[in-house]
Design goal:
Length: about 150
């Protein structure tokens, strides 16, 4: 092949290499998008479960349901709140006194729920209760999972 003086063949080779590079780039992008789409639903579900657990524990604290449960040594308020959660969500609240984090002073599991799950979201929150002019510190742990369907 003779070399052209005007350089048209040189431009053809550069264009051909650019097309090959674009094809390789498109395959890499397509492969990346495919694998990212495979993992997103699981990660999204996990994040939503964690956010729901966090919001649930925040509401239990801010509405003084946790404080009432400790003051009255009763789980009625927590059970009532759990009953209003969506049916597919199971939850358990465990409350510890700051002086003994190994022994729960109150543990409440949502009625009609069993502790069987594929994924568990756990959040903890500290809160104070005033008693006889003293502030007592407690830690509430909320475990939440999706109810297994038959």
């Amino acid at each position: 092949m003779k070399h052209a003086k005007n350089g048209k063949e040189k431009g053809f080779i550069i264009s051909f290499e650019a097309i090959i590079a674009l094809l390789v780039f498109a395959v890499l992008i397509g492969t990346s998008v495919f694998y990212l789409e495979q993992s997103v639903p699981e990660a999204r579900n996990s994040l939503l479960l964690k956010e729901t657990a966090s919001d649930t524990l925040t509401v239990l604290d801010k509405t003084t349901i946790l404080q009432d449960a400790i003051d009255n040594r009763s789980s009625l308020g927590i059970n009532s709140f759990f009953a209003r959660l969506p049916y597919n969500k199971c939850a358990e609240v465990i409350i510890y006194n700051e002086s003994d984090l190994n022994t729960a002073i109150l543990s409440v599991l949502r009625q009609d729920c069993e502790k069987t799950f594929d994924e568990l979201a756990t959040v903890k929150r500290g809160f104070f209760i005033e008693s006889n002019g003293n502030l007592d510190f407690y830690i509430a742990e909320l475990n939440m999972w999706v109810r297994e369907t038959a």
